[in-house]
Design goal:
Blueprint (H helix, E strand, L loop, with lengths): L8 E6 L5 E7 L4 E5 L13 H4 L4 E5 L16 H14 L5 E6 L1 H12 L4 E7 L7 H16 L1 H12 L2 H5 L3 H8 L5 H16 L13 E6 L7 H10 L4 E5 L6 H4 L1 H14 L3
Parallel strand pairs: 3-4, 3-5, 5-6, 6-7, 7-8
Antiparallel strand pairs: 1-2, 2-4
Helix pairs in contact: 2-3, 4-5, 4-8, 5-7
């Protein structure tokens, strides 16, 4: 995965339950909080940061228990992960932020907007969903079983399912890295399994309509992990949300279609004077 061509300022955010969160901070301007998916790393957003940091103060984090962030003792629920992100904003001195959440990050962003609506200026929900579905439950339950039975297969299957084939065929390093960093230890498997459990339990269909800031829902029609029909459903649950679906890009389109995703984000925010 490409790395930014500039230096990030790093912060460590200490939480009451003894978790410590690694936070990266780039650029100046209105605050833009980027929240990644199941993998939970700040580095997921590396391809997007250089262009975004020309317009915004871009803040991103390793979620609890992931990469350079410690686990702590609190339960790993979507509500807790949302509270963690609010603590990051507090630490960075940010009263209000635009929040971009991808996949799991989109679930976290929805929850932030409902727990602390005064803290968000706008939400971009990328490759995410708002309510439980048979597809969601079956896929994540199957992935959870695979995690323990064949962790290397779990890691590799995520790469094949998450990236469109044409992009992956020119970027095999992603597969090699996934295989080399597969969750083979009980500790790593526990971190992922509790995050999968949180996603299986996630359902905001009863109250997501209360999110009262500008909203954009983004998806890809060839996403095999969070199919585009789930973004179309989310738009019907939200009040006055915009929808944009890429034809290609797979689940990780912020990485595979950075040249399309970042301009879309910047232009959408510009038209809303954000």
């Amino acid at each position: 995965m490409p790395t930014p061509n500039h230096s990030s300022h790093s912060h460590i955010v200490a939480l009451p339950d003894a978790a410590s969160l690694n936070v990266l901070d780039d650029g100046t301007g209105p605050a833009l909080l980027l929240i990644s998916g199941l993998g939970g790393t700040a580095n997921f957003w590396n391809p997007c940061v250089p262009a975004l940091a020309e317009h915004y103060r871009v803040i991103r984090l390793d979620q609890r228990g992931i990469a350079k962030s410690s686990r702590g003792t609190a339960s790993c629920t979507i509500d807790q992960l949302a509270q963690d992100c609010l603590a990051v904003l507090d630490h960075c001195g940010v009263d209000q932020a635009i929040v971009v959440g991808h996949s799991t990050g989109g679930c976290i962003a929805q929850t932030m907007a409902l727990l602390a609506p005064e803290r968000l200026r706008a939400c971009i929900f990328s490759a995410t969903w708002g309510k439980s579905s048979r597809h969601r439950q079956e896929l994540f339950s199957t992935r959870r079983e695979m995690l323990f039975k064949d962790p290397v297969g779990y890691a590799c299957s995520s790469v094949f399912m998450g990236h469109d084939a044409n992009w992956l065929n020119h970027n095999w390093k992603v597969l090699e890295n996934a295989r080399a960093n597969a969750p083979v230890t009980p500790e790593a498997q526990h971190i992922i399994s509790e995050r999968l459990d949180a996603l299986i339990a996630f359902d905001r269909s009863a109250d997501v309509h209360r999110i009262n800031v500008p909203k954009l829902v983004v998806g890809a029609r060839d996403d095999l992990i969070v199919p585009s029909f789930l973004q179309e459903e989310l738009v019907t649950m939200l009040d006055h949300a915009d929808l944009h679906l890429f034809e290609h890009g797979g689940h990780f389109f912020p990485v595979t279609r950075t040249n399309l995703f970042v301009p879309l984000v910047i232009e959408w925010l510009r038209t809303r004077h954000l």
